[in-house]
Structure formats: C-alpha cells, structure tokens
Amino acid sequence: MVPVWAQIVGSATLPHLGGLFGWYLVRSQVSNWYEQLKKPSWRPPNKVISVAWATLYTGMGYASYLIWRDLGGFTDGALIPLGLYGTQLALNWAFTPIFFGTHRLNLALIEAFFLYGTVVGTMVSWYPINKTATLLMVPYLAWLTLATALTYCIWRDNPDKKKES
Predict the structure, then answer these.
(1) Residues 6 or more apart from 42 whose CB is under 8 A from it?
(2) Which of 56, 51, 32, 142 is nearest to 64 (CA)?
(3) pTM (predicted TM-score)
C-alpha cells in the first residue's frame, strides 16, 4: 500500500511534469520570439508567471488527490470527474508548445477557450464530491481568465506574427 503522503506528493507533482516538459521544449522561444511580440501593459512579468504556475499546478494536483481519495480511487464514479481533470491537464500542457513552439496564436487562443471550458466542467463535476477541491481550482480558473485575455490581446495586437494556415 502506498502511504498517503506519497499519494499526495504524486498527485501534486504530476501537473508539474507536463508543464516542465513544455517549458523545456520551448524555453528558447521565450527570450527570442515572445519578447518580440507586442504585449499589453498589464502582462505579469515572466518570473511572476513561473511562480504562479508552480503554485497553481500544486493546488490543482492536490485537489485531484482529494477527488481521487473521496471517490475511492479510479472507480467507475471517478471516470467523469478525473477524466475531465486529465483532459484539462492535457490541454494545459498543450498550450505552451502550441503558443511558443508553433507560434500559432489563433490556435493557441482556440485551445485556451477549450481549456477554460474543460476546467469549468471539471469544477462543476467536482463540486458535489469535494467543495475544498473545487475551491482549490478557483485561483487556476482566475489565472486562466488572465492568460486567455493575454493570449487574445497578443493575437489581436500581432497580426504579422499570426500563423493562420
């Protein structure tokens, strides 16, 4: 039997893995391509963005542990709540390579809207199971609101950088 602390650490660590891998793939694009883009004045500094994502990944990972625990693991009842969580996590991880890797601002914006909707769906499915887990997702949703607005502004303000094909 895996100790509870290891289950919590594993759940809280999982979201970081895809985030780190995505960053590793595109890290040079931040200092090169991204810095050349027109960005709104309210954009958070890169260091704040890194700290925010680290905090959000840990919170959403712990929240997923609470849902997994309350549903008794990977049971039939966990299929939708944890399936939605896994889907939003995969969409989250895909955003970085799409935006920074392919420079497809239009596709990144569409992907951000799908991610946002999937996070809302995850939270709705979690609410009857564990309200604390749902509340742990609120800062993530707030940050996604900011990130989606930022993606929109970058897409809108950089018509020469859009890859529409």
Answers:
(1) none
(2) 56
(3) 0.89
